[in-house]
Amino acid sequence: MPTAIAVTSADLVLPAPDRHTPAGVVLHPPEQLDLEGALAETTALLERHGHVVAVVPTWLPAATVRRLHTVRAILESDRIALIGTDLPPLATALLVRQLRQLSVCDFSPGIIASAARLLSHYIYAGALLGTVAKLDRVPVGLKAHARSWSPNAQFAVLANPEPHLVKLGGSSGGGGAHGGGGAVLPPGPGFATHLTFARGQLASDWVTAELAPAWQVQGVMENPLPADSPAWWATGKLVEFAAAIPDIAMLYQLVASVRRERCRWCGAELIGDRCGFCAAPLVAPSSAPSAAAPSTAVPGARSAEGPASRPRS
Q1: CB–CB of 177/185 below 8 Å?
Q2: Helix, strand and coil percent figures for the chain, each rounded to 5
Q3: At 167, phi and psi to the nearest 5?
């Protein structure tokens, strides 16, 4: 069985893009399952899949994060990876789907776990917002705050891989390709992607009519808005969007092109500078790194919440 890719909310499990991609696993939060039940749930997953890679967004409730670490510590298992991410909810769901796609490839669980940081850098995540007055996830200038009080104001905000904010010109659904002061649309990916979007309480076709053509995406798909999106973006007046690589062959090539290392602590394979399972940093070799190996220390994604409790072998 492939490595289990787990989340703590069903709305982070997007439909599989093909019949080969396995379903994601939902680990029930503390308000739905007591500790004894959570231990049994995780033990059954380990028996069935061998390893569990759980994606742990930074916006999860503290009690849910503590539960995940508690279960891992009690089971004393080196087969559970808790992978933190700063991505917005919809982009997190896309990252989870990419990991599900990779789970059926010939990568070890350690490579799959550490690949999350690399893949996060290639996800363009943002939202069309009706206000940025309370937004604290990306830098918002005083002028943008003031413009938020204008009737029918709309802002195109990119949170990952680099923050970017544009006030769109006009007040209609399309919004136009240029914002106030000559600002242009948020910069898009320079590689093939599909665009996924989810509507909140903002009635607009700007994402499909303006952004998708400008970013030259190869496909557009709508999904329900994740429950945590309004809190992440600090408003319910939004249309969340994320562009990501959909092709399993391209994802495989991207991950396979990075030099593999062996964790000095738990022995798991990894790419990048930190083990996905025990969070131990990679000790840099004395020789120069391979020129073909891109760095995976990228903004917008972090390893597990806080220092990981190092498991026993």
Answers
A1: yes
A2: 30, 20, 50
A3: -85, 125
Residue with tokens 């003031």: 146
**Global pTM?**
0.85
Per DSSP bridges, beta strands 155-160 and 124-129 are: antiparallel
Query: How many CB atoms neighbour CB 8 within 10 A?
Result: 21
Relative to beta strand 269-270, strand 164-167 is: unpaired
H or E segment and range at residue 222: strand 220-222
pLDDT tens, 131-151?
998 999 887 765 555 455 555
Could you give the C-alpha distances from 56 to 118, 147, 198, in angstroms and in order?
16, 34, 21
Instruction: Return the SS3 of 7.
Output: strand
Q: Which residues of 154-178 are buried (b: 16+ CB within 10 A; e: fewer)?
A: bbbbbbbbebbbbbbbeeebebeee
Rounded Cα distance, 187 and 85, in Å:
22
Using the 8-state DSSP alphabet, how is residue 205 labeled?
A: -
108: nearest Cα among 50, 40, 186: 50
Comparing CA positions, the residue from 50, 6, 8, 10 lying closest to residue 28 is 8
53 vs 66: CA distance, rounded Å: 16
